[in-house]
Amino acid sequence: MVNNIYQHGSCITIDGTEFIFISGGTFAMGSHENEGNIDEHPQHIVNIAPFFISKNPTTQLLYYTIMNENPSLFKMNSNCPVENTSWLDAMRFCNRYSDKYSIKARLPFECEWEYSCKAGTNSKYFWGNCDDPNIIDKYVWYGKNSNNQTQAVGHKLPNSWGIYDMCGNVWEWCMDWYDEKYYSISPEDNPKGPTTGKYKVMRGGSWSTSICVRSAFRTWGEINQIDNTEGFRIVIEL
């Protein structure tokens, strides 16, 4: 029913914040056998239900609008992504955002994040397999071009689904608990990660890193940790 109302890639706006409709589909999650880290294997088929994802990471302006505070270290531009936010902070934001606009906002599950990032590709990066710094520079704020700080969202090229800053700028929290071996037991339909754990998944790399901007790269953090490389984006559940 939802796919009959919205077309894949169509955009809605909620009080100035843009969300991209991601139609349901199937993709290969994780990295090829000869690529990536052990926790990105095995590559496996996942079926995804439709959802909306924010076009950009959550900005400092949006965070302040909802939470009446800005915890970020880098405050030079309110359109920079909010950082210094823990997983718990991100969840509190989602809850308040949901209440304010009478929707179901939350962090993306890891499968939703990677599906949105890959945008129909199965390559190392969402732009292909090219490691040329001149090409990477067109898409990503990372350790080689960021001037050691976050940058305003939406100024690099988006992926083919029109989503910006999926890699670089800030790490993005996901809903899932982290487990290095989860991919070997992951269900095929809408996996939601382990039921318990110590760490939460983060995706996408940041302004401070140069090797973590592959689409399938995974890392983790404790739910109450804060760092000026860590932010989030939200999805709207249907």
How would you portray this structure in words?
It is a single chain. The protein is of the alpha+beta class. The protein is built from five helices and eleven strands; from the N terminus they run αβββββααβααβββββ. A five-stranded antiparallel β-sheet has the order 1-2-5-11-6. The mean pLDDT is 97.
Query: What is the CATH topology descriptor?
Result: paralog of FGE (formylglycine-generating enzyme)
CATH homologous superfamily, by name? paralog of FGE (formylglycine-generating enzyme)
Ranges with pLDDT <50 over ≥5 residues? none
Structural class: alpha+beta
The strand line-up of the biggest sheet is 1-2-5-11-6
Helical fraction equals 10-25%
Radius of gyration: 16 Å
Sheet having the most strands: 5 strands, antiparallel
Shape: globular
Known CATH architecture? Alpha-Beta Complex
Number of strands: 11
Count of the separate structural domains: 1
Mean pLDDT: 97
> Can you write the helix and strand succession as a string?
HEEEEEHHEHHEEEEE
What is the rounded distance between the termini? 11 Å
Sheet-strand content, in percent, reads 15-25%
